[in-house]
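User: Haloacid dehalogenase domain protein hydrolase, Haliscomenobacter hydrossis:
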Amino acid sequence: MIKACIFNLEGVIIDTQRIFYEALEELAKKWEVAPIDRSSESDVIYGESRKKALQALISRSGKIIDDAQRSGIMEAIDAEIASHIADITPDDLEDDVFVFIKELKNKGLNLGIVSAYPNTRKVLNRLQITHLFHSIVEIEGGGFSSVSTRAYLMVAKELGMSPDETIVFEHTKDGASAAGDANFFVVGVGRADDLQDESDLVIPDFDSLRFRKIISALGTD
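Assistant: Predicted structure for Haloacid dehalogenase domain protein hydrolase:
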């Protein structure tokens, strides 16, 4: 019986990719690092921690950057992201995801968020949905990647649930694979061609989605 759901903040609750890239583009200009090509490098940059994203930019630039400069760039990333977070409103929620989460809450399910995004709680506060979640884990501070199996297990532990009682909603192949490796039920959110091999079920979005439909499709009635 499903008793909990875990959502990846990025790409499921809100389109953080736009904010992430805008911050990195400003950074690239300021530090004269090679510009970002979103169409060809989304799998390399997006979804990585800030440190890994920074290293990817530095590697492509061919520049030698010392620790002091690296620290300054990290501060610049944080400042750029913070400025974009300040502009977030509930209108930035992915379509119909709020309605779906409210349905889960009303049914008594335990809900969790996992994110590698800095200032996760600030984002949720700006979206006005912090109160809907029992567990919020900002995993970059924990020292492991955004697609780590350990990340999902940490949220499940805080919720007091086992993987076979929990659905993970993910939008990346690596994230879906990591959740599946931990024996969670996995619902991929996005293109079926991208996620079907790693997910138990794939949905394009939350448009008119109801919990009963998910349960029936997963065969967990």
